[in-house]
Fold:
Amino acid sequence: MAKTNLIKKANFTIAAREVDFVTRFNKNWDALREILGIMRPIRKAPGTVLTSSTATVTLADGAVGEGEEIPYSTVSIAPVAYADVEIKKYAKAVSIEAVDKWGAAVAVEKTDDAFLNELQTVVLDDFYDFMQTGSLVSAETTFQMAVAMAIGNVTDKFKKMRRDATSVVVWVNTLDAYRYLGAADLTVQTQFGVQYVENFMGADRMILTSEIPEGVVIATPTENIDLYYVDPGDSDFAKLGLQYTVQGETNLIGFHAEGDYKHAVGESFALMGMKLWAEYLDAIAIVYVGTATKVTTAETITAEATGSLKYKTAHSPIISVEELKDGSTAITDYTVEKDGVRLASAPSGTVTVKYTYAAQS
Structure:
């Protein structure tokens, strides 16, 4: 009879599975970091709130006489606070009947693979949504010019901010890319499930994704992209009796597997707090494939729904707003969205707007 507390073969199987899961997850993210040019993930300290910024530089007159004091140019940084990095908790369970019917290779290993892929997708989807809030917006009539100007716009922005843009990453819709690539001799590579083209029109990487709408090109310098994470192996979590397996110097995800004898299922738990982020919103270029068209007569707009501060325009996507009024009073506190404007407070009169949009052919 085996002695009490003997560590059996099953214990090693679970531990190896946990290590394998987090190791594969980290390797995939290392591949994506290489594609995006992220030097090193940043561990988020408790209580930290992520912010993006817009930067404005106003140059003083450079015509300075001999011996005269050189005036300072002004640089202003306006921070935009966002939500904290959320800790997300996930679980899955595989029944003993599923293993009996399909075998462990399918019921456990294949579902682990699917689980891992979905966790990665959560972070990427959030990042793509965030990138579409960039404020360096313009329009060009062709896909090729849209890519070229997206690269040019962010490079020019970084130069004006006195920052080096050593490399630029571009995101385009998969179908737009293949329409163009069909007539070009270029090689599409795949890593981490991400398709990309290297050294495309001055960009280090052009990433192909269906998460970016057709007719849209997004670009930013690699120096503008950061990966923040909460360490699932934090000792404070262990004080709750929660022990997650982590791997390597950068603990992006924690994983734990155990059996539930009451229900005869194998449970898996994942814990992660990851967010891909851009430091400067106005160094994210969004270029629409279309013709920049101005609405010169004030257009009356109404709230999207009762009580909503979102006011939709007749045309989109919007490139810029030239005039926004509440009755005869100018509205200055608002944000521009793809298909309208979002006011900071409820208006008291009729809202009118003049704007430029990308008329798509």
